[in-house]
Amino acid sequence: IELIVEDSESLVAAEERKFGLGESSLFLINSREQKLIEAQLKANDLLGKRLLATASLYNALGLATPRITN
What is the pTM of this model? Predict the structure, then answer.
């Protein structure tokens, strides 16, 4: 999913360049930005689910939940 976010960021940047050259519209930029936001939300949702599953696993095993750092 991280690759999808990166690809969406690239598409937004490309659409903005096209707009600067007169080959695109604000509607298309907005559409690309909306897809980027959707991809970011999906990535955050999946990360949250993964962290919750990890915490549940540690709890089931009777282990202390590890600290999570970025």
Answer: 0.80
